[in-house]
Amino acid sequence: xxxxxxxxxxxxxxxxxxxxxxxxxxxxxxxxxxxxxxxxxxxxxxxxxxxxxxxxxxxxxxxxxxxxxxxxxxxxxxxxxxxxxxxxxxxxxxxxxxxxxxxxxxxxxxxxxxxxxxxxxxxxxxxxxxxxxxxxxxxxxxxxxxxxxxxxxxxxxxxxxxxxxxxxxxxxxxxxxxxxxxxxxxxxxxxxxxxxxxxxxxxxxxxxxxxxxxxxx
Length: 217
What we know:
With 217 residues, this protein is of the alpha+beta class. The chain has helices at 10-16, 53-61, 83-86, 108-119, 145-160, 187-190, 195-211; strands spanning 44-50, 66-74, 94-101, 127-128, 131-132, 138-141, 171-172, 177-179.
């Protein structure tokens, strides 16, 4: 879990992070969702988990119609919703993001398409990239019944389409969202040269912009 090793010497971090060179990533081509959540008045929320919240937050901050993205923890209880406890992998939380979006500009199913295509690898179980453990699982936390139905339908749709070489591991879960500490918010923009950001997250943002040019801002 590279990002949990702040005491490693800088030179060692560069080795672990591929000497600062971002690997090429591409958006997985996925079909548009056959089922979506009807647009409702006002802003809506989506809660998604897919590995380190730094990169997830960075990708969705670049999506048109997204007003705000907050990194946090979902699936556990309030008393252990903190970085130290969650990192023990015993709290049942997942690192997650809460997206505030305008459904008149971007739909819930479109957010799911980005989530599955480029924000993370939905076929990995309890890990993403260099990070392993249940807090890095792929999970969707629907905020209402319509979101739950749309998420299940899209997972079934892209599974039938054979979009991935392995089965989709993403689970539909219930649980509250708790914001993470201030140091984890907007981490990508505040730490553009951090070795983890350069190695793992900048390629995701670049892949999103290349794969979704009309959706990127």
